[in-house]
Amino acid sequence: MINVSKIRKGVVIDHIKAGEGIKLYHGLELENVQGVVVLMTGIPSSKMGKKDLIKIETDFDLNMDLVGLMAPSGTVNVIENGQVVNKEKIRLPKHVRGVLTCKNPACVSNHQDLEEMFDLAGEDPVSYRCCYCDQVMELHRG
Ligand code: CTP
């Protein structure tokens, strides 16, 4: 298998569902990052069969809401001085700000300069409730 070096400092998003890594890459706009970014896809995994993985070797302020929505099976590893200093299992965010857009055309958030806010409404299927108009939106992934 192709070997990718360990990094000195940055973030490794591991255990991304196979096929979802490229979406997360674009969602996080990693094409704009000034630093080394590696997207690996189709890595054999004993737990997942196959997985994707992203390494970001730079200071990067990860939008955990976005990561939680796009890669809820994942793990975020923070690397400093070549060591994993924090490992966090990604979860669906309970509250999301500014990432989703309400699909209700009459919602005030679509007419005024307000930050979108949603609360997690259900996990199977994943759905979020708009905090302004109570519209529930199912998220379709995969
Ligand atoms: N990693 C890295 N650079 C480092 C340290 C770790 O790129 N300096 C990567 C590893 O290659 C791995 C991920 O970060 O993909 C997590 O590292 P580690 O916790 O050491 O691996 P595992 O024990 O396999 O992780 P898990 O238990 O979460 O499966």
TrEMBL record:
GO terms for cellular component: aspartate carbamoyltransferase complex. Keywords: Metal-binding, Pyrimidine biosynthesis, Transferase, Zinc. GO terms for biological process: 'de novo' pyrimidine nucleobase biosynthetic process; pyrimidine nucleotide biosynthetic process. It comes from the Bacteria. InterPro entries: Asp_carbamoyltransf_reg_N, Asp_carbamoylTrfase_reg, Asp_carbamoyltrfase_reg_C, Asp_carbatrfase_reg_C_sf, Asp_carbatrfase_reg_N_sf. One of its GO terms (molecular function) is metal ion binding. Residues 3-90 form the Aspartate carbamoyltransferase regulatory subunit N-terminal domain. Gene3D superfamilies: Aspartate carbamoyltransferase regulatory subunit, C-terminal domain, Aspartate carbamoyltransferase regulatory subunit, N-terminal domain. Residues 96-138 form the Aspartate carbamoyltransferase regulatory subunit C-terminal domain. PANTHER family: ASPARTATE CARBAMOYLTRANSFERASE REGULATORY CHAIN. This is Aspartate carbamoyltransferase regulatory chain. It comes from Urinicoccus massiliensis.
